Amino acid sequence: MADFRLKAEDAGQSAGLLDRAKTGDLDAFDQLMRANEKQVLGTALRLLGNLADAQDAAQEAFLRLYKSLNRLPDVQGIKAWLYRVTVNVCNDMHRARRRRGWEPLSGPEPASSQPDPELAWAHQERGRLVEMALKTLPEKERAAVVLRDMQGLSTREVAGILGSSEVTVRSQISVARGKLKKFTDRYLRKHL
Amino acid sequence: MNCSDWEQDSAEFAEHLKVCEDCREFERNAAALRELTIAPVAFAAVRQRVLSEIQVRKRQAVWWTWSAVAAAACIAIVCVSYVLPRLQNPTSPTAVVAKMDAPKIGLTPKPVAHRVRHKSSGRSLAQAAPVRKTEPLAVVKMLTDDPNVIIIWLVDQKGDSL
After folding, report:
1. Which one of A1, A66, A177 has the shortest CB-CB distance to B9?
2. Engineered SS bond to A119: which of A114, B52, B77, B111, CB 3.0-4.6 Å?
3. CA dist A153 to A39, A49, A79, A110, A149, Å?
């Protein structure tokens, strides 16, 4: 489970980085990006289902972070703020893509962490299936299920990020899980 | 707890997974997506792009700042060299007074033979034209800053301007 609260030592270190980044120190900003890149790029990849688009979204999210450094009160707020911005950027990209009516070609596939090649392949296929299923969900449901089930946030944290109530998030996740299950079942029945 | 309302790290969830095949399947799928790792090159590429974009924006900001400073300096120079001296020391127009006779109008009546009688009006031209008294006019010339502009003020004897 992700926790936005940092340990005292990490918080002190990150606060120092944030202060230095606010003065225009690019090395400090680079360190801040390294500390949050897995969260940002991982979320964007799960929301967009394409590495190239996810990289664009992550770039935009970090540029917005750089522009807003002076408005961020403390380092504790960065993670939640970045989640919120990443979800918004991904939603914008989704809408722009829908307006233009094209679907990008898939970029290089992310690798599975499984050491056994056969298991790794099975994992990768399963991952691809969920990615396809996620693409069929409306953006709010997709964001809710990605943040809670893939990123491991609590319902309260997801509600805070999406600006909804906990009840709404619970209902969105419940509906989304049902749709994902229906999609994967149908797909597997068709292809196996 | 029901199938649609579990959270991964709750103790209830582990118990629930043992009995619910649907949730086990969903958790396997979610875990597969969670475990997909992104190559370090992809992270490095994003960082590189962000840093170079920031540097480009910084350079643009410096350029705009210097352009604004240069424009402000130009405006200041124009103000100092042109507007301020005129505000501090305005040149008043110079008045030159000279007397000039007014042109003589309608003193000699036209010969009767050439008179044409207009049926419509029923009056001759000589009768229609009023005879104006000739009085000398005072001419006041006002010289301005611009040598091409001279204000001429004609004043009759009574003091009314024309």
Report:
1. A1
2. A114
3. 11, 20, 11, 22, 7
